């Protein structure tokens, strides 16, 4: 999984949690879709910084996907605040889809 | 360090604005099919018939236009890359059109071209104008030139011209304000709407949504501009020939321009399909793609009609079949496909927006019944083919039984739409 982080263990937990956040149109979770670019943890301030993208900037489900990512992390890391930074730089490409994701889309 | 942010997510249009259009359109489709069932015998007569005019306007305005205006408000942010300018204008657009359309239908059905037709026509024009202003101001805020937005804006201009000409034609019945009788302008009025409004709009929206739903990276702006100019030049040349030249052979020129545009669009869709990342294409998307090919039927009928006219032969059945294949064929198939691609998301966003991430939510496609959709598609296809045969053979029995199938399709469509709209939260 091509996700940048400053805390491998907590990032793995985060990504496991985010496996439940599904792009409602595609039916695939945001991790396997490759929408998550970076998950950093600020232990002093107790903040999780997430940098993520969408398949398109005009995605009609964009707001709810971002909201779902935030809610899922808040639920898993109750002591932390979550800041989601939505970025389209770099733009999402299909190369970011995981092998499992490719399999799902080819079904 | 996080990557540099360009986090501007275009805000969705409120479901409160959009849902009334969808519900109205669904009910109008049901009404259109009820009228078709009760007046199916009219399709053995001349196309200038009060009941056929009433059915045509129910389908063109109540069904096609209201659905496109609803989807248009919803998809505006996707198309113009800017959020909707005013919800108030959107509500006004609905109220004016929703009040005007039944008056027009009543006026045509009873052929009362006095106040019901004039007030109805004026209200429809006001509704279209509200949408146009909303669109224009929204677009003026958008920073990028966007071919899809230009398609949508031009289509709406053509719609306004269509409804304005329609109002003139209505007034001309009682006041003689035009040089010829209103019947003489019917073809002009119809093609402004069919080509200028429906075709431009469908291509403008489809060229954005088809690659988006297929998750295809294919894009070809240059080709879209070629399609845009071919359609507009075709339509303008049609108007000039219709008003000034009156030479039937010349009508082949705009038809050729439109055919060229459609071939380019079909090729565009084919490339988007071939370069899709998502291999499994759902039924709704297949119906939408099928509707691209369904444009071929009215075009073929139109070509035959023109060739017959060149040889001084007019075939009323062909003209009826042409109109039927547009409103009950091409436009209805597109709406069937796109309703169940867009409405589930609108409802999902309404019901689950604040619940996302807190538990397992159903997917948008689980909010309606796929079995109902399949049954509707079968009833619709059977009814459409049978009714077309009924027109060709002028058979009252075939027309009546075919319209029963179409009515069944309308009932199933409404059932599924209301199942969606009335969906209550259901979380695992």
Question: Could you explain the architecture of this structure?
Answer:
- The complex is a heterodimer of chains A (107) and B (428).
- Chain A has 107 residues and is an alpha/beta fold.
- Chain A has one domain (4-106): GMP Synthetase, Chain A, domain 3, CATH 3.30.300.
- Helices cover 32% and strands 23% of the residues of chain A.
- Chain A has three helices and six strands; from the N terminus they run E-H-E-E-E-E-H-E-H.
- Chain A has a four-stranded mixed β-sheet, covered by helices on one side.
- The longest helix of chain A has 15 residues, at 62-76.
- The radius of gyration of chain A is 13 Å and the shape is globular.
- The two termini of chain A are 21 Å apart.
- The model of chain A has no long low-confidence stretch (mean pLDDT 87).
- By secondary structure, chain B is an all-alpha fold.
- Among the domains of chain B are: 12-144, no CATH class; 147-277, no CATH class.
- Chain B is built from 13 helices and no strands.
- Chain B has helices at 15-38, 50-80, 87-110, 115-141, 147-175, 186-214, 221-245, 252-274, 283-294, 296-310, 316-352, 370-393, 396-421.
- In chain B, helix 2 runs parallel beside helix 4, helix 4 (115-141) packs antiparallel against helix 5 (147-175) and helix 10 runs antiparallel to helix 11.
- Chain B is globular.
- The A-B interface holds A 20-22, 24-27, 37-38, 40, 49, 51, 54-72, 75, 85-90, 93-94, 97, 105-107 and B 2-12, 74-75, 77-78, 81, 212-213, 215, 217, 277-280, 342, 345, 348-349, 352-354, 356-358, 360-361, 363-365.
Query: How much helical structure, as a percent, in the residues of chain A?
Result: 25-40%
Number of helices of chain B: 13
Radius of gyration of chain B: 21 Å
Low-confidence stretches of chain B: 1-6
- The fraction of residues in strands of chain B falls at under 5%
Question: Which labels suit this protein?
Answer:
heterodimer, A: 107 residues, alpha/beta, GMP Synthetase, Chain A, domain 3, four-stranded mixed β-sheet, two-stranded antiparallel ribbon, 32% helix, B: 428 residues, mainly alpha, 13 helices, 0% strand, disordered N terminus
């Amino acid at each position: 999984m091509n996700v940048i982080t400053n805390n491998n263990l907590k990032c793995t937990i985060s990504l496991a949690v985010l496996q439940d956040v599904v792009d409602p149109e595609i039916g695939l979770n945001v991790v396997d879709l490759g929408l998550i670019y970076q998950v950093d943890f600020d232990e002093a301030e107790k903040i999780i910084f997430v940098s993520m993208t969408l398949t398109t900037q005009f995605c009609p489900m964009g707001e709810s996907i971002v909201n779902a990512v935030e809610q899922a992390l808040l639920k898993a890391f109750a002591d932390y605040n979550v800041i989601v930074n939505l970025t389209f730089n770099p733009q999402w490409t299909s190369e970011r889809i995981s092998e499992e994701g490719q399999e799902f889309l080819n079904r | 360090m996080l990557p540099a942010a360009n986090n501007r997510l275009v805000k969705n249009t409120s479901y409160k604005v959009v849902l009334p259009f969808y519900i109205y359109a669904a009910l109008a489709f049901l009404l259109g099919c009820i009228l078709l069932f009760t007046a199916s015998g009219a399709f053995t007569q001349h196309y200038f018939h009060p009941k056929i005019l009433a059915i045509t306007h129910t389908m063109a305005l109540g069904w096609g236009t209201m659905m496109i205006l609803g989807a248009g408000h919803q998809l505006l942010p996707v198309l113009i890359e800017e959020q909707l300018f005013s919800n108030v204008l959107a509500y006004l657009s609905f109220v004016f059109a929703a009040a005007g359309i039944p008056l027009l239908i009543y006026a045509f059905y009873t052929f009362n071209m006095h106040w019901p037709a004039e007030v109805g026509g004026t209200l429809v024009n006001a509704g279209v104008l509200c949408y146009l202003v909303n669109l224009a101001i929204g677009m003026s805020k958008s920073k990028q030139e966007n071919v899809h937005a230009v398609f949508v804006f031009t289509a709406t201009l053509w719609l306004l011209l269509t409804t304005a000409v329609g109002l003139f034609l209505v007034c001309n019945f009682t006041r003689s304000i035009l040089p010829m009788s209103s019947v003489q302008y019917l073809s002009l009025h119809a093609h402004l709407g069919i080509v200028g409004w429906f075709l431009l709009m469908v291509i403008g929206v489809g060229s954005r949504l088809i690659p988006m739903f297929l998750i295809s990276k294919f894009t070809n702006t240059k080709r879209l501009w070629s399609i845009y100019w071919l359609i507009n030049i075709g339509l303008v040349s049609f108007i000039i020939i219709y008003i000034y030249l009156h030479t039937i052979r010349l009508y082949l020129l705009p038809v050729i321009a439109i055919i060229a545009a459609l071939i380019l669009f079909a090729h565009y869709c084919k490339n988007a399909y071939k370069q899709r990342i998502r291999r499994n294409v759902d039924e709704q998307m297949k119906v939408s793609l099928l509707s691209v090919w369904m444009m071929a039927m009215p075009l073929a009928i139109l070509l035959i009609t023109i060739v017959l006219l060149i040889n001084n032969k007019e075939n009323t059945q062909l003209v009826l079949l042409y109109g039927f294949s547009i409103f009950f064929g091409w436009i209805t198939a597109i709406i069937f496909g796109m309703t169940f691609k867009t409405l589930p998301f609108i409802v999902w966003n309404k019901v689950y927006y604040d619940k996302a991430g807190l538990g397992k939510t159903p997917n948008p496609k689980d909010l309606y019944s796929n079995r109902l959709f399949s049954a509707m598609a079968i009833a619709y296809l059977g009814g459409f083919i049978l009714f077309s045969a009924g027109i060709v053979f002028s058979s009252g029995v075939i027309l009546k039984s075919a319209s029963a199938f179409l009515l069944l399709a309308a009932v199933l469509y409404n059932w599924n739409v209301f199942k969606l709209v009335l969906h209550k939260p259901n979380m695992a």
